């Protein structure tokens, strides 16, 4: 049986689990991949650091470049830009295959890595970069290879899903549930990347690239976070049989692919509405397959390691027997759709002076912008002050440009006291 | 570019869609597979039958054997045992690859087909046989190749899920919702195979074979249908925050793999509880990945055709470039666990005479069988007659044998008037 040399870069939460599985399950991995996977070294900054898992000390090295130069397969779990980027380029350039879970790096430099891999015949795989343990790369590339994907919607950030789910269950405010998420270790001390949607945006770029076989990067993604979602928004959604989720959405439109991340209202019967806690899920619509969903743990040491090892076995199988090239050879430049052209529907909550003619003025403005109303509700959950009425409008699908203009014109009406929330609605 | 000859056997609901996609999307399929996929003929019983899709008449033939003998790839969508079995054997024996969605045939003869394919180097793929469009074969074989699956639970029959979901939504009786399913075309005139669980059992055998890399057949599956589920069962479950689903379950136990199909209570927060209508979903537990779920359309012409074409492209890619052998080479004889040894928990509803000491007698019987009680509820949904109390017991996990013996002993108590229902509970 052939032996393949595996270099591990990084030994944090995920890296330690990958090392453990490579050592503990060596026999199973050899049986499944057709080659002995020999862990030849683990590059770390400090060899003396204590790890969560017992690993033979002789495996640790601080010389990552020398380690990369002797490997057939390089598993990069350092995170961040450097030295991860240089080490991946070094590996791919000499024809070593690379497995990485580094979403920020992939979103920024993925297309360049693809070219390097293609030129040297190396394999580049990154199932772990999107939605942790959930198999999504291969189902899209393999299982849906005879179909055409039209839309992908994903809950791809566990921290924000935990917070929104907790707000939905308890009725508490965003700040309180963020604090709880931090206490439980679901959110970091600086939660910016999660709650502002930046982490989800990086994953959206990768997902869109896979689903539509084009190269998207972070700059192509319209991004809004969840910091402005109030307990009142969540309660009003609940009252309407809906739930608020932070979704990464990539969709084929009239003149390209639109990619966006924003808080989104979904009916409670939608499969994504049932994704609780820190779990992730990717909902896919394809021409023939219809609606599919892939659900699982989006983070965590062992789950992410499972995805890394799945990639490792796949890479090893191909190194042993030869076989089809991975998806990356198919990438083409992206045609990014202008955000203003994306079709969506709006949920608008506002408080207005309770006087004759207000409703007529508002419905006239909506119609004037070519938008049609699905439901208009007077009352709702909020308590009304004297002479103030609460309104909730849900529109049919229209362009972002028309909807934004509608909201702007409504907000300028003298009778409108406040636009309390504007949220997008997805699903049927 | 290489040309691969594709023979289609059968032109029913799925076959017609496969033919349409092969003809309409020929360019996309060639680009993705690296070979031109030429549909050389469609074997049908009667060439004059009207089809749902416009297909050039010259493609139809009644000589299936001659068609198989000229093909590189044979797509079998005839259903039933013969001539499907002989034609698949004929194709595999001469080294032609086979794609089939014939679950009943695979459950009965899959192991023999695997041997034939392995010997001739042909590929055998059957993603469409389990849960229609849902990618499950490849995620299990590829994505989880670095992990160990411990349990698979699936909603794999759309008809019974439609009926149970409708009972849950409307509160109606089984017979009424079966009639509605028949009217809407979700259930056949003779619904036996669906409502008795036989269709789900065939899929359970295939799923268990994939997940545990062993050969199971129909005889290894313990099977109970949904015909005895009453509106009262559904209402009581709802009252307890649960829902009843027909699940196919394959699980690694102490002394082998247990495979079973039966109505199952799940908490409403469980991801499988959110699978509505005729949709299917497969829930997978793996040692490192944790909980995963795959959701989608379990039947229908176009969705099933999507899975068939995904397999076709994968087979073509390997015929063009070479590559790893499919999963079938890994099959080993199954170690089937005795049903009596399977660990599960029971939900027992019963009516008892409202007299002192009854509760004590029952809890003593339960304890005597080594079973422990999770909840005991007096009252519940049913209206009580004079002097009759309704009890509901949910047990912790124990063996089937101990639980069945417990129910038998309880039923023999003089104070017990009726055991109204016994259901198994899954999920945490």
From TrEMBL, chains A, B:
UniProt entry keywords in alphabetical sequence: Amino-acid biosynthesis, Methionine biosynthesis, NADP, Oxidoreductase, Sodium, Threonine biosynthesis
Domain called ACT: residue spans: 347-428
GO biological process, one term: threonine biosynthetic process
Residues annotated for NADPH binding in this entry: 103
Catalytic reaction annotation: L-homoserine + NAD(+) = L-aspartate 4-semialdehyde + NADH + H(+); L-homoserine + NADP(+) = L-aspartate 4-semialdehyde + NADPH + H(+)
Binding site for L-homoserine: 188
Listed cofactors: a metal cation
Pathway terms, separated by semicolons: Amino-acid biosynthesis; L-threonine biosynthesis; L-threonine from L-aspartate: step 3/5; Amino-acid biosynthesis; L-methionine biosynthesis via de novo pathway; L-homoserine from L-aspartate: step 3/3
Active site location: 203 (proton donor)
Top-level class of the enzyme under EC nomenclature: oxidoreductase
Annotated family: Belongs to the homoserine dehydrogenase family.
NCBIfam families to which the protein is assigned, alphabetical: PRK06349.1 (NF004976)
UniProt function note: Catalyzes the conversion of L-aspartate-beta-semialdehyde (L-Asa) to L-homoserine (L-Hse), the third step in the biosynthesis of threonine and methionine from aspartate.
Protein name per the record: Homoserine dehydrogenase
Species name: Paeniglutamicibacter gangotriensis Lz1y
